[in-house]
UniProtKB/TrEMBL annotation:
<dbReference type="InterPro" id="IPR036724">
    <property type="entry name" value="Cobalamin-bd_sf"/>
</dbReference>
<dbReference type="GO" id="GO:0046872">
    <property type="term" value="F:metal ion binding"/>
</dbReference>
<feature type="domain" description="B12-binding">
    <location>
        <begin position="1"/>
        <end position="137"/>
    </location>
</feature>
<dbReference type="InterPro" id="IPR006158">
    <property type="entry name" value="Cobalamin-bd"/>
</dbReference>
<dbReference type="GO" id="GO:0031419">
    <property type="term" value="F:cobalamin binding"/>
</dbReference>
<protein>
    <submittedName>
        <fullName>Methylaspartate mutase</fullName>
    </submittedName>
</protein>
Amino acid sequence: MRILVSGTASDSHTWNLVFLQLFLEEQGHPVTNLGPCVTADLLAAHCLEQPPELVVLSSVNGHGYRDGLTAVARLRAEPALDGSTIVIGGKLGVAGSRDPEAAALLRAAGCHAVYDDGDLNALRDLVGELADAKARRVTA
């Protein structure tokens, strides 16, 4: 399964992206890591070149709810990316607490899951489900 990991537009942190890349590669998936400070347009352009099955957005600086909404809306504006699953996680708000309303806006914009609690087990489960679904399609 092709996975793309990316930071958000205003987030310059890299350790979270490297961690996610290694975490997903350990599950047997090829991962492209776009790095930090990725604008929504750059993210969309890269995804359009070779649509990933999963886009994992990560934020540490606390602006993930806002930047993520821009990125998800931009990706969902591209019909060619309808088959891509998009998730976001990390420290998404500056208040230091989860924001259910902001998370709901991300889901309404087309984000499959919002991991504002840092739940790596839930991400691992989702990756496994997507990989199993892909395997069933290939063998059908």
